[in-house]
């Protein structure tokens, strides 16, 4: 399913990917991709791809500082692609490489912090979330656990939903999450 849907989606979105890459390059001349080490399946490190949304000199490679609303590090193009989640599209290349799945627990940066603690220091069950490949989207995302994870409760809530996904995994659950993700990405309705 990952390979089939991933390749079809990449093909359909190729023009969007090229336009966004060009817009980022034209804005400040820096690279259009942001490559960040993330923790994946079996606790292995892989290089996750994203469109670069921050100024080159302020990019946070270890992920220790979460992006905040009105973050001065974010570029003009970056604001648009982050608001629409377009910055995540290059992860479609991680899928056929076998590093990511379309659906699964979202991969975290190595230096991600909540309450000034690394994620794995907060809950001993943290490492269980790496029993599956990380996903471009997941159950936690469609349940509203997106964005900044700055408190221990934020991490614990996401972790519990990730573990629920692992326990209850099925192809139907993945399809439900993919459809739910499309709904989450639709701009707010009046």
UniProtKB/TrEMBL annotation:
One of its GO terms (molecular function) is phosphotransferase activity, for other substituted phosphate groups. Residues 1-185 form the Bacterial sugar transferase domain. One of its GO terms (biological process) is polysaccharide biosynthetic process. InterPro entries: Bact_transf. Keywords: Exopolysaccharide synthesis. Signal peptide: none annotated. PANTHER family: COLANIC BIOSYNTHESIS UDP-GLUCOSE LIPID CARRIER TRANSFERASE, UNDECAPRENYL-PHOSPHATE N-ACETYLGALACTOSAMINYL 1-PHOSPHATE TRANSFERASE-RELATED. Belongs to the bacterial sugar transferase family. This is Exopolysaccharide biosynthesis protein. It comes from Qipengyuania aquimaris.
């Amino acid at each position: 399913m990952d390979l089939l849907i991933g390749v079809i989606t990449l093909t359909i979105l190729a023009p969007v990917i090229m336009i966004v890459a060009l817009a980022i390059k034209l804005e400040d001349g820096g690279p259009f991709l942001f490559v960040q080490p993330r923790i994946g399946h079996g606790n292995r490190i892989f290089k996750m791809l994203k469109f670069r949304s921050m100024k080159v000199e302020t990019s946070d490679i270890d992920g220790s500082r979460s992006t905040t609303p009105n973050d001065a590090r974010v570029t003009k193009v970056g604001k648009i692609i982050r608001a629409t989640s377009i910055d995540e599209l290059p992860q479609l290349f991680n899928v056929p490489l076998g590093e990511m799945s379309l659906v699964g627990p979202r991969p975290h940066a190595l230096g991600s912090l909540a309450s000034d603690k690394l994620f794995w220091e907060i809950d001993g069950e943290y490492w269980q979330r790496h029993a599956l490949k990380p996903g471009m989207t997941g159950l936690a995302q469609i349940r509203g656990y997106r964005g900044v994870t700055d408190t221990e409760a934020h991490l614990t809530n996401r972790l519990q939903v990730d573990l629920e996904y692992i326990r209850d995994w099925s192809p139907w659950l993945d399809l439900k999450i993919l459809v739910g993700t499309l709904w989450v990405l639709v701009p707010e309705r009046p």
